[in-house]
Amino acid sequence: MFICFLLTLFLNCIIFIPTDVKSEQKTIFLQQEELKSYALTEWEQGYINWNKLDELLEQLQSEVSEPPKNATLGEGLQIIEEDSGVSLDRAAFTINFLEAFYKGEDSSIQVPKKTVYARVDKEMLKEITRKKLGSYTTFYNSTNKERSTNIMLSAKAMHGTVIFPGEVFSFNKTVGERTEKRGYKKAPVIVKGEFAEDIGGGICQVSSTLFNAVDLRGIQMIERFTHSRSVPYVPPGRDATVSWWGPDFSFKNLYNEPIVITARAAYGSLTVEVFSSETVEHFQDK
């Protein structure tokens, strides 16, 4: 309890010197007594309590970290550049902290940051949009505004998704929960063979169009369920029903290169395409 009290007191006493530039450093000021609170009490003076220091590192990480933003696709194959992020340089800060700790005096300690690069950059997107692997188009009634909205929202959420070799794509995780707050509307859905109204009605057309686009030799289907009755937008048996609390549609990338999905819904037409690099090839059996 005493250690927890000291930690709380210490964190409240940290003075952050704010910056507005990623590359600049923050600084914390520690008084001599605060530094001493990081010593192990059951040993002779001079041994660090590493558990307590880890708690400080986690606190600082939450203060300074900014996650990177991957490059993605805008309209069609237009590339929106990535943005790097920053993270706490834990090793460098630990050295700075130990120097101050063993000095035993009031100290200003730099909180070093390091750049975190985006996993997907514009150069990668350029490469993996060169070769079309698959494409499929379905049609819908654009005068049905609610259903059209749901189709367009889910297609937009999926557009630009990159799946690396060996990774599994999940429709539900990628598109997210379909809620009114996120703009989804009530529209007809099929429940146990009967039509009903529910939030997000129509997105099964998106998952079904995606299934037909990615039905390729280098794609392994992981999870796919068909509707309890035929649907009009794809041939019988070529659909993939999804529900946030129920079935998902997922598949694994068995190619040697990342693939990227594009999706466009407009004027009653939904097209999903799959691209990769010129050197893409199927590298393992299903």
TrEMBL record:
InterPro entries: Glycopeptide_resist_protein (IPR052913), Vancomycin_resist_VanW (IPR007391), YoaR-like_PG-bd (IPR022029)
Domain YoaR-like putative peptidoglycan binding per the UniProt entry, residue ranges: 48-105
Domain of life: Bacteria
Name of the protein: VanW family protein
